[in-house]
Design goal:
The chain has 71 residues and is mainly α. It has helices at 17-39, 42-49, 53-62. Helix 1 (17-39) packs across helix 2 (42-49) and helix 2 packs across helix 3. The longest helix is centred in the middle third of the chain and has 23 residues, at 17-39. The chain is elongated, with a radius of gyration of 13 Å.
């Protein structure tokens, strides 16, 4: 994104791999939620994040941020 995205400050120390996985997923979800709110376009999100457009579509679907008709 053009400007840094502030992520929540959890103030806790991650003590297991599961907590790390959960924290990373929450951070990724936050990034995609904010990117979708800003751009409303998978191609623009992909460009801003430096990833492929199909990856954006999969992540938005994974986190139920947006749904896409396969037809």
């Amino acid at each position: 994104l053009e400007s840094a995205i502030a992520l929540p400050n959890y103030g806790t120390i991650l003590d297991s791999e599961e907590n790390l996985r959960e924290a990373l997923e929450l951070a990724e979800r936050t990034i995609f939620e904010r990117a979708y709110a800003k751009y409303h376009s998978t191609r623009k999100i992909a460009g801003a994040l430096g990833i492929s457009q199909p990856t954006v579509v999969r992540r938005l679907a994974k986190y139920k941020i947006a749904t896409f008709d396969s037809n």
